[in-house]
Design a protein that fits this description.
294 residues
Length: 294
């Protein structure tokens, strides 16, 4: 019963946001493909078809994912008070789903499932973008020279590493997400302005006026942890000019697995544990605020 209720809540998110989500997934690569014939591409080695294809696949995957994350970031404040703002809270409270299920489904859909779908969709679009880029740069000869099997074997470990790193990064950024959502839920339209003022006070005025730099250090630890979760060792691939000449000899899988293990080991951090405790408290506050909204 709980599984069916949660699935219904996820379906609600899809029905309410599907148009915006589809635009996010489709618009960036489609616009690139429409503009490409009229644009000029610099810095792409047409004599290296494999590199051209890899650039297209990686750029498209990361581009769609980043755009999706930016969109989700801007939606977070409104999601925290959506049911109250559109006066549908009485209806949702009449259903058997709990407040934690309702909030959990919203968070899962917007900051986990949708970005993961964006990464996979961008990866699929990447092969179309890579083909178009190859035709633009070197014509049919460059496109015919692309070893698509090598492109797949090189790009798939990178995709899996990005997806896993994104999930780990969410753990590091969870307290920041909860702070933003609680500010909006409790203070409504004044939440984000109040949060901005608090950030200026905590991160700018306190360090300069009183030498209190604790909050800056904590935020820096969380941000570095999130970045290292995505790529723990950016130099591990060892890509230089010489390696680019023989990119087919690179093994992204040999880099991705140890890098993922290093990011996993970094989770044993007091900063992460403290952040998760703060995120849990923030989630509880959201549930409490929603329970008082009717």
């Amino acid at each position: 019963m709980k599984t069916s209720r949660f699935s219904a809540l996820l379906q609600r998110e899809w029905m309410q946001h599907k148009i915006g989500w589809l635009v996010t997934l489709l618009a960036p690569p489609v616009l690139f493909l429409l503009i490409l014939p009229f644009g000029h591409v610099d810095g792409v080695p047409e004599h290296m078809p494999l590199m051209v294809a890899m650039m297209g696949v990686v750029a498209c995957t990361m581009g769609v994912l980043v755009i999706c994350l930016i969109s989700a970031t801007f939606q977070l404040p409104s999601l925290a008070r959506r049911d109250v703002q559109d006066r549908s809270i009485e209806f949702w409270l009449s259903l058997p789903a709990s407040h934690s299920e309702s909030i959990g489904a919203t968070l899962l859909a917007h900051i986990v499932l949708m970005p993961l779908l964006a990464a996979v969709a961008g990866f699929g679009w990447g092969y179309i973008v890579a083909s178009a880029l190859a035709l633009k740069v070197g014509g049919i000869s460059t496109w015919m020279g692309i070893p698509w099997g090598s492109v797949m074997s090189l790009s798939t470990p990178l995709l899996l590493r990005v997806v896993y790193g994104f999930l780990l990064a969410l753990l590091w950024l969870a307290p920041l997400v909860m702070i933003v959502m609680n500010a909006s839920a409790w203070l409504k339209r004044w939440g984000i302005p109040a949060l901005a003022v608090a950030c200026v006070l905590v991160f700018a005025i306190l360090p300069k006026a009183y030498g209190i730099d604790t909050f800056n250090e904590l935020l820096n630890h969380q941000w570095i942890g999130a970045m290292q979760a995505v790529i723990a060792d950016p130099h591990g691939l060892g890509i230089g000019k010489e390696q680019l000449q023989h990119v087919e000899d690179l093994s992204t899988a040999a880099w991705a697995l140890p890098d993922a293990l290093a990011a996993t080991k970094a989770l044993a951090s007091p900063n992460l544990i403290g952040g998760l405790v703060l995120a849990g408290a923030g989630f509880a506050l959201l549930v409490f605020r929603r329970s008082r909204a009717h």
